[in-house]
Design goal:
Layout lengths: L1 H10 L3 H44 L8 E4 L2 E4 L4 E5 L5 E5 L16 H24 L1 E5 L6 E2 L1 H12 L7 H7 L4 H7 L4 H18 L5 E2 L3 H9 L2 E6 L4 H10 L8 E3 L12 H8 L9 E5 L2 H9 L3 E5 L13 E3 L2 H11 L16
Parallel strand pairs: 5-8, 5-10, 8-9, 10-11, 11-12
Antiparallel strand pairs: 1-2, 2-3, 3-4, 6-7
């Protein structure tokens, strides 16, 4: 630049031109000098900004490898949070859910004392539950004549199956309820082979009317609610399990029973102890003095005696004058359950049970 100035100074004979060239040269030199700090400043600013961003990013702790969704959003897999840019230099952590001030963090690990308390409490709960399960009584109920009045449906089905050969009286049929169907037909006069032939038409007709012609005895639901609070419940019947469960479901009481033993479930029917013993095999082990068979016929009572459990007779059904055959006698299932509860000194009044909870 100075060489250029000297050259034009020598060659020019005009002082005005020389002065003009000198000023132009000085201006160009000054411009070069002034522009140098500007470029340096720009570089310094750029470096500082990068360092600030690095420092800012170093202060962010990522617990797992992040998945980069876009340039302006980072999503953390561990806590379902993302880091979003508020501006070019700052980040803001945005959780998906707002945590209450007093709510513990979901990733917070319990300390040793908390673990110990949790283990002790869980062991206590399990121990109490197991103890209560084995402290409970077992109440086994007959179906027809004990919980339900099914005489009309049974009698009409018998008349239909007889096909006009002869019609048994309702009292004859009433006295036979509790026996297997084949035995009932034999008792009213059919040979064994003929009795077997009557079973199919009987069932075909019974399935059409049994729900309509079956009635629940008074206060049975109250008795089952009460019994459910302190006992395991089961059904022992010579009716088939299919019809038994359908009736129980129809009256919305099947939910109370843990086992239903029907005629097809055993080889030997009441008064044989097999139905009772089979039902007990599905229930928790319980001392025999806490096991009750509640029924209305001599077959129920003899089955209970043969199985060495308590035999309770209810007069509401189809058996008559069985007080001497039973350990205890009651007018209804409700009275029988109340007596068992009182004998065990169990307070069920403080237990609230809503039948809809089991539906």
């Amino acid at each position: 630049m100075f060489k250029w100035l000297r050259k034009h100074s020598i060659e020019s004979n005009n002082d005005h031109d020389t002065q003009q060239y000198r000023e132009q040269a000085k201006h160009n030199v000054q411009h070069s000098i002034d522009s140098a700090p500007t470029e340096k400043s720009t570089l310094t600013t750029h470096v500082t900004s990068s360092q600030d961003q690095k420092k800012s990013s170093d202060s962010i702790e990522l617990r797992e490898d992040p998945s980069f969704i876009s340039e302006s959003k980072i999503e953390l897999k561990a806590e379902s949070k993302h880091l979003a840019y508020n501006d070019e230099k700052h980040f803001e952590v945005k959780p998906d859910k707002k945590t209450q001030p007093n709510e513990p963090s979901p990733l917070q690990k319990p300390n040793n004392q908390t673990k110990s308390n949790l283990i002790e409490n869980s062991q206590d709960i399990v121990a109490k539950d197991e103890l209560l399960e084995h402290e409970k009584h077992i109440l086994l109920f007959d179906l027809d004549g004990t919980l339900f009045d099914s005489l009309e449906g049974i009698y009409h089905s018998f008349c239909y199956a007889c096909e006009g050969d002869f019609l048994p009286s309702i009292e004859e049929v009433r006295a036979l309820i509790g026996l297997p169907l084949e035995t009932m037909f034999e008792r009213i006069g059919y040979t064994p082979s003929e009795a077997r032939k009557r079973i199919i038409p009987y069932k075909n007709y019974y399935r059409q009317i049994y729900l309509k012609e079956t009635k629940m005895f008074p206060k049975v639901i109250e008795a089952l609610i009460m019994a459910h609070n302190f006992a395991h419940l089961g059904i022992i019947t010579t009716k088939t399990g299919q019809y038994s469960r359908a009736i129980l479901q129809h009256f919305d009481v099947l939910k109370f029973f843990q086992v239903v033993i029907g005629s097809e479930d055993v080889q030997h029917h009441k008064p044989h102890p097999e139905p009772i013993l089979k039902a007990l095999s599905f229930l928790p082990i319980t001392p025999k003095d806490k096991v009750y068979m509640i029924g209305d016929t001599i077959y129920d009572l003899k089955a209970a005696k043969n199985a060495n459990v308590n035999a309770l007779w209810v007069r509401c059904g189809y058996g008559v004058e069985l007080d001497e055959e039973a350990d205890e006698s009651f007018d209804s299932v409700y009275e029988a359950v109340c007596a068992i509860r009182d004998k065990a000194n169990i307070n069920t009044e403080s237990i609230n049970y809503n039948p809809s909870d089991s539906r």
